[in-house]
Design brief:
- The structure is a single chain.
- This protein has no helices and 11 strands.
- About 0% of the residues lie in helices and about 45% in strands.
- The strands form 2 sheets. Strands 2, 4, 5, 6, 9, 10 and 11 form a 7-stranded mixed sheet that branches.
- By secondary structure, the chain is an all-beta fold.
């Protein structure tokens, strides 16, 4: 079975930092596109960041961010540990949401995917709350 489990959510003050982690099991996602999405109450699930597979190094894949988080969030992966991370700095109250880890089934896939429907596996989500 494929399982993605997020952790690291919690409460932070505006301007603070949190680091989210996504531990994958059941298969390796070292060569699969992975991403982070978030969903605030009453809102649609929206794209946050993605990291693409790189043929030279598992951890050197290109990254792409939503404009709302660019310059503040950093996505990374540890292919050997099968872990995806999201370092969030300069947090704002509007970052408050449930954050979801996602992965595509495809392997050796260097494509860019920013839509919910592009992903096949999802974690249960972790709550991030940012106070002003």
């Amino acid at each position: 079975q494929v399982l993605l489990v997020e952790s690291g959510g919690g409460l932070a003050q505006a301007g603070g930092s949190l680091k989210l982690s996504c531990a994958a099991s059941g298969r390796t996602f070292a060569s699969s596109p992975m991403g982070w999405f978030r969903q605030a109450p009453g809102k649609e699930r929206e794209f946050v960041a993605t990291i693409m597979w790189h043929s030279i190094s598992w951890n050197s894949g290109n990254t792409y961010y939503a404009d709302s988080v660019k310059g503040r969030f950093t996505i990374s992966r540890d292919g050997a540990k099968n872990v995806l991370s999201l370092q969030m700095n300069g947090l704002k109250p509007e970052d408050t949401a449930v954050y979801y880890c996602a992965a595509r089934w495809s392997e050796n896939d260097s494509g860019l995917y920013v839509n919910v429907n592009d992903y096949d596996y999802w974690g249960q989500g972790t709550q991030v709350t940012v106070s002003s």
